[in-house]
Amino acid sequence: MINVKIAFLSLLTDFTKIKAINLPLDDNSTIKNVFKKLSLKYGKEFKEAFFDTSGNLSKYIILVLNGKDIRLLKGIDTVIQNGDKISFIPAIAGG
User: Could you give the CA distance from residue 32 to residue 95 in angstroms, rounded to a whole number?
Assistant: First the structure.
């Protein structure tokens, strides 16, 4: 069993009502397992806000594992370790 810290930044706390959570997971879990567990905890609205219709992470959400964008790692198949920090960051654009 491992434990990871999940942080929800800025507007994303509207879906979770919290800024951070410690999440227990099975050994050898991936980012995909984190998504499944969080979707069960926060429901359909969370899932629809964070994922596109194909089930991929929304292009409006940046997911960072220990300071690195998961797209530079193995995406949602990235294996997480005990004590890792995962941050969900809204992509913000301006004009």
Answer: 33
